[in-house]
Write a structure and sequence with these properties.
Elements: E1 2-7, E2 10-15, E3 58-60, E4 65-70, E5 77-78, E6 83-89, E7 92-97, E8 102-107, E9 114-115, E10 120-124
Antiparallel strand pairs: 1-2, 3-10, 4-6, 4-9, 5-8, 6-7, 8-10
């Protein structure tokens, strides 16, 4: 499928392919015209949390943004790919999904909260 996207007054035509399987781990990305070459940005520094965290039992925000919706609830059983939290950044929504099967222990953010990249937003049991 071809789409036209306008960025800063410049229109770009891009080819978009629909994935057959749902994306399990959303990633932030930019679509750039093929002739533009932009060096890769360094990975964002981890946000300092209260202490050491078991990475297998947390979901982190992939981007800096604002919490639009909390979909999951504490105590809820989840499957990989289930939407837990919806963020907004630059007028685009990003779903934070469950990486593994389990149960939601705690949601550490609320609707309207600002979050930073790599901030823990959901803790799993």
């Amino acid at each position: 499928m071809k789409l036209k996207i306008t960025v800063d007054g410049k229109t770009y035509e891009v080819d978009v392919e629909v994935a057959e399987e749902p994306v399990r781990h959303p990633q932030a990305f930019m679509v750039m015209p093929s002739q533009a070459r932009v060096p890769a940005a360094p990975a964002p520094a981890p946000v300092a949390d209260a202490g050491p965290v078991d990475e297998a039992k947390v979901c982190r925000s992939p981007i800096t943004g604002t919490v639009v919706r909390i979909v999951a609830q504490a105590g809820q059983s989840i499957q990989p790919g289930d939407i837990l939290v919806v963020l907004e950044a630059m007028k685009m929504e990003t779903n934070i999904t469950a990486p593994v099967e389990g149960k939601v222990k705690a949601i550490t953010v609320g609707a309207g909260d600002g979050v930073k990249a790599n901030q823990v937003v959901v803790e799993l049991e």
